[in-house]
């Protein structure tokens, strides 16, 4: 698995999965239902991490993701980006 950030190794895959579970509430809608937020599975890890950093710094995005992204450290962002990138697209 390609690590996006230098500190990605600080989180285990189980920890990354647990963090990602909070994202899936919005990003993994029931099949056949309207999509509330874009699916993240199979997205390029570097792009995901950069988008999350831009949310965190307030450079980009809506209020929802800006507020959320503030709660994550650099290591957590890298682990989330790697976890989503490694999931198959559905
Ligand atoms: C409360 C619902 C909600 C939760 C929880 C949530 N998101 Fe989002 N997310 C959104 C919405 C709505 C958008 C699209 C609007 C925007 O850009 O803010 C979005 C957009 C994104 C995008 C940009 C997607 C694209 O293709 O441009 C990324 C990346 C993202 N979220 C990552 C995450 C991650 C990682 C988590 C968990 C840490 C998370 N989100 C949790 C609602 C949510």
Summarize the structure.
The protein is mainly alpha-helical and 90 residues long.
Q: According to CATH, what is the class?
A: Mainly Alpha
Bound molecules: heme C
Structural class: mainly alpha
The CATH architecture term is Orthogonal Bundle
Distance between the termini: 20 Å
Name the CATH superfamily classification. Cytochrome c-like domain
Strand content of the residues, in percent? under 5%
Global Rg: 12 Å
Overall description:
- The structure is a single chain.
- The relative contact order is 0.26.
- The protein has one domain: Cytochrome c-like domain (Cytochrome Bc1 Complex, Chain D, domain 2, Orthogonal Bundle), CATH 1.10.760.
- The protein has 90 residues and is mostly helical.
- The longest helix has 15 residues.
- It is built from four helices and no strands.
- Bound molecules: heme C.
Give the arrangement of secondary structure elements.
Elements (H helix, E strand, L loop, with lengths): L12 H15 L17 H13 L5 H7 L4 H13 L4
Helix pairs in contact: 1-4, 2-3, 2-4
Bound molecules: heme C.
Heme C (HEC) binds next to helix 1, helix 2 and helix 3.
Task: Give the key terms.
about 90 residues; mainly alpha; Cytochrome Bc1 Complex, Chain D, domain 2; 4 helices; binds heme C
């Amino acid at each position: 698995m390609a690590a996006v950030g230098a500190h990605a190794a600080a989180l285990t895959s189980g920890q990354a999965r647990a963090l990602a579970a909070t994202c899936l509430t919005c990003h993994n809608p029931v099949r056949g239902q309207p999509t509330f937020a874009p699916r993240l599975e199979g997205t390029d890890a570097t792009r995901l991490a950069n988008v999350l950093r831009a949310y965190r710094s307030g450079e980009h995005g809506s209020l929802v993701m800006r507020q959320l992204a503030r709660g994550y450290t650099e290591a957590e962002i890298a682990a989330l980006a790697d976890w989503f990138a490694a999931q198959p697209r559905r």
